[in-house]
Design a protein that fits this description.
about 120 residues, mainly alpha, two-stranded antiparallel ribbon, about 5% strand
Length: about 120
């Protein structure tokens, strides 16, 4: 189990950093900004968490990855003005709150990877 947690830490760092960089991307559709970057960041996080759950046959690495990613994104959203990486706009809120939703969904999905008890 220690291997799963050891893999979850750098995976969470990658997902949090890449998702934070990606979440602010958007495009205009009929004058409305569509935050495709936040959706792509959440898909990236979900795929990393799914890979961890499947590779280590446990939901624990998925939980560690989600918790650490949420903590990092939360910290980056509370920095002082001028240094803040995640702003409280639509894309930022989708990214911050979506981390929790995606993590809970992946934890429910990764329960199926538990080894069968005899």
């Amino acid at each position: 189990m220690a291997g799963g947690i050891a893999a979850a830490v750098p995976a969470a760092l990658f997902a949090a950093l890449a998702g934070t960089v990606l979440h602010g991307q958007d495009f205009l559709v009929a004058g409305v900004e569509v935050p495709w970057g936040a959706a792509a960041a959440l898909v990236l996080l979900g795929s990393v968490e799914l890979w961890l759950g499947a590779a280590f046959r446990s939901a624990l690495p998925t939980a560690v990855c989600g918790a650490l990613c949420y903590a990092l994104a939360g910290w980056w959203s509370t920095l002082e003005n001028g240094k803040r990486l995640i702003v409280g706009d639509l894309a930022g809120n989708l990214w911050i709150y979506g981390i929790a939703v995606v993590t809970i969904g992946m934890l429910a999905w990764c329960r199926r990877y538990r080894p069968a008890t005899a």
